[in-house]
Specification:
GO molecular function, one term: hydrolase activity
Largest sheet: 6 strands, mixed
Structural class: alpha/beta
Helix content: 10-25%
Strand order of the largest sheet: 1-2-3-4-5-6
Number of strands: 14
CATH superfamily: Ribonuclease Z/Hydroxyacylglutathione hydrolase-like
CATH architecture: 4-Layer Sandwich
Organism: Luteipulveratus halotolerans
Shape: globular
CATH topology: Metallo-beta-lactamase, Chain A
Protein name: Hydrolase
Radius of gyration: 17 Å
Strand content: 25-35%
Cofactor: Zn(2+)
Keywords: Hydrolase, Metal-binding, Zinc
């Protein structure tokens, strides 16, 4: 699987581009703040044609560029429980942060919803751009946070990587940490359930492509991530 990842211009949000190969249709995952120039370069260099945008959740740092990337021709996919966040994601941003974003990237009143928004739910399978993507609802960071699973792994990984599938984890799971739960719509108990019921059962050979920071694996996080260690050592409630 052709996989390109690069950080947004603010907040270090990872934007991913996925395709079966050069010159093919592709998916754009979490187009955050200021990604458009670099995204255009990636698409031109690899002759890729975006066919859809996948959103792991509705926070502004993951959705900021969704409407221009969709461009009236492509659908944006988001979980039903986070659909409301696309009406105006600025509503969930603190005043100081909003002022900074407006100064650097434009006024809030320029926000427009994508013309075509598709609501997704847990367990759904999406067949897009020649790829099959599983939807795993994992609330806690937001009500509608999801992780996208694929049986493919990025091209060019070394043999010793020992991974057999990929997980676009959004802000559910990071290398050594998890997404915060103290923002509006966050829920610490829901996050604990998501870690226990959705993350912990994943195979060790799962490559984790998080919303922020470096890639990791479930095997590595199982033994190094304190949040997973806590969950694995706790009896089910």
């Amino acid at each position: 699987m052709l996989t390109v990842a690069f950080p947004a211009a603010a907040m270090g949000t990872n934007c991913y581009v996925l395709a079966t190969g050069r010159g093919q249709e592709c998916l754009v995952v979490d187009p955050g703040i200021g990604v458009e120039p670099q995204l255009r370069e990636v698409l031109a260099e690899l002759a890729l044609k975006p066919t859809a945008v996948l959103l792991t959740h509705g926070h502004l740092d993951h959705t900021y560029s969704v409407t221009p990337v969709c461009g009236g021709e492509r659908a944006a996919y988001i979980h039903t429980d986070d659909r409301y966040r696309l009406k105006n994601p600025y509503d969930q941003v603190s005043a100081p942060l909003l002022a900074m974003l407006e100064q650097q990237f434009g006024k809030a009143d320029t926000w427009r919803e994508p013309e075509d928004v598709r609501e997704i739910t847990d367990g759904e399978t999406l067949d897009l751009a020649g790829l099959t993507i599983g939807v795993r609802h994992a609330p806690g960071h937001t009500e509608g946070s999801v992780m996208f699973s694929l049986d493919e792994v990025p091209d060019g990984l070394p043999d010793e990587a020992e991974v057999s599938s990929s997980l676009l984890a959004g802000d559910v799971l990071f290398a050594g940490s998890i997404g915060r739960t103290d923002l509006p719509g966050g829920d610490a108990q829901a996050m604990q359930r998501s870690l226990r019921d959705v993350v912990v059962p994943l195979p060790d050979t799962t490559l984790v492509l998080p919303g922020h920071g470096p890639a990791t694996t479930i095997a590595h996080e199982r033994v190094t991530n304190p949040y997973l260690s806590e969950i694995q050592g706790r009896p089910e409630a």
